Fold:
Amino acid sequence: MKILAIDIGAGTQDILLYDSEKKLENCIKMVLPSPSPLFATEVAAATAAEKDIFLEGCVIGGGVFSKAVKAHVSKGLQAYMLPTTAFCLRNNLEDVRASGVKIVEYKPEGFSGTSIWLDELNLQPLETLLESVGESLEELSAAGVAVQDHGTYPRGESNRKTRLNYMRKALSEDPRLSSLAFREGMVPERFPRMQSAMRRLREQLSCKHLLVMDTAPAAVNGCLSDVKVKNMEEGNLLLINAGNGHTLVCLLCHGRVIALLEHHTRYLEAASFAHYLELFCSGKAKDEDKFMERGHGLFYLEEPPGLESIDLIAITGPHRELLSESELDIYYPSPGGDMMMTGPMGIVQILKSSLSHF
Structure:
């Protein structure tokens, strides 16, 4: 069984070609720059040249790319985007228009600026590289990609709260992390980036089974691929993904998600975060707390057991050192000896479970 898993974060895209006939340590793995900053560089170049831009193609991650487009417009230059592509900036097109971006159906007649085709899932370079080492994407059993998608939201409402409300609803119906993943044909319209990612997978791959999910739950789920974490799966686990942009905290008890918290990584500091985790694990944390003002939010599905009853605190992600100066006893998962593969392995585990039912 071969599975292609790609986790596209704010800083890197982590790629794993999982092969069940090999030790995980021997599978092909890559950590490459995330596409979004590369496109941001192209926008910045057009800004420096004082050229208008026309953006078309797929929905990609915002972040630094979104900032580059806003900086472009702030210079008095025009930025034109197709309606679908505009979801790169915000998941509400009224908000995109309000930022000064022109949403158009076609490239403006006589446009003489810089045209940029956006695509964060062009698999051709990967295919070429794999062929050079005797591998191929033609023999895949399944493939999956993780991207962050806040979901569309009504103007005036918080896209951060909308994101957490969706997770709460999905996990209320099925408290497994796999409930936050979507198979082909099941991606809700409210997630334009996930829909775009699924389309790109299908356009380029012939394998029967495809999956998309959010990056943070993928990484948290991937922690369970680490031998030590897996052996304690039936206990009380505090699993944390400290990503470049966001940090997700998941309280997993006997395999069920019972609480979730998400914050912006750049606002977190070891001592205050560790203290707040104690409140979170005891059920005393609240959305309206001052600590959560700049965060996405939190929710409980069941009564938490308290920090003293947590069997293991595991943290992964590029900012996993976040709690290194706290007094908490921290474990650092590394599936197959590579922390950067927690996201791809989270995808692989869900796909393997799905394939076992066919």
The CA atoms of residues 45 and 51 lie 9 Å apart. The chain has ten helices and 16 strands. The chain has three domains: 2-31+122-217+346-355, 35-118, 230-342.
